[in-house]
Amino acid sequence: MLEFLAHISSDGRKQSVLEHLHGTAVKAAEFASAFGAEEQGQLAGMAHDIGKYSAAFQRRIQGAAEQVDHSTAGAAECAKINEPYAAFAVMGHHGGLPDGGSRTDSIDSPTFSGRLQRAAKG
Questions:
Q1: What is the pLDDT, as a whole number, of residue 87?
Q2: What totals of helices (H) and strands (E) does the chain contain, helices first?
Q3: Considering its fold, how many domains does the chain have in total?
Q4: Rounded distance, CA 7 to CA 40, Å?
Q5: Across 3-32, average pLDDT
Q6: What pLDDT, on the 0 to 100 scale, is given for residue 1?
Q7: Residue 44: helix, strand or coil by DSSP?
Q8: How far apart are alpha carbons 109 and 101 in whole angstroms?
Q9: Residue 119 CA from chain centroid, whole number
Q10: Can you say whether residue 97 is alpha, beta or left, with left for phi > 0 and alpha for psi between -120 and 50 degrees?
Q11: CA-CA distance, 22 to 82, in Å (whole number)?
Q12: Residue 109: how many CB atoms within 10 A of its CB?
């Protein structure tokens, strides 16, 4: 069975995507409970690295030089279930919250709307 990796430490220890998502979901729920958003935190934690379940990311983690957007996939899944706050958090979990943009943005736009449109097109 293929193992999907989220992280490989400098000493060679490996963490699976599933293990990473679960651990992050628990921590995010704990942090978000301080302002009454435990479920949103849990969802964002579970979704934030779904994009690591891709052949491109698995090549990247093994040393390939290609750039991989792994955050848009999770944001798109949150948007599909009408959870825009979690979607914004997931999309911005590395580079900060994106400009929201609008429905008229092209798929090449770096905005939230543009990236979701690009994800929908595959």
A1: 93
A2: 6, 2
A3: 1
A4: 24
A5: 96
A6: 60
A7: helix
A8: 8
A9: 12
A10: beta
A11: 21
A12: 17
Q: Assign 101 a pLDDT band (cuts: 50, 70, 90).
A: confident
> In the predicted model, what is the mean pLDDT of residues 56-60?
95
Question: 95 lies in which domain range?
Answer: 5-121
Which three-class secondary structure state does DSSP give residue 8? strand
**Lookup: tokens for 110:** 């770096």
Query: At a CB cut-off of 8 Å and minimum separation 6, what does 36 contact?
Result: none
pTM of the model: 0.80
Buried b (16+ CB within 10 A) or exposed e, 81-100: eebeebbbbbbebeeeebee
DSSP 54: S
Q: Which residue has the tokens 């628990």?
A: 26
Integer Cα distance of 70 and 72 in angstroms: 6
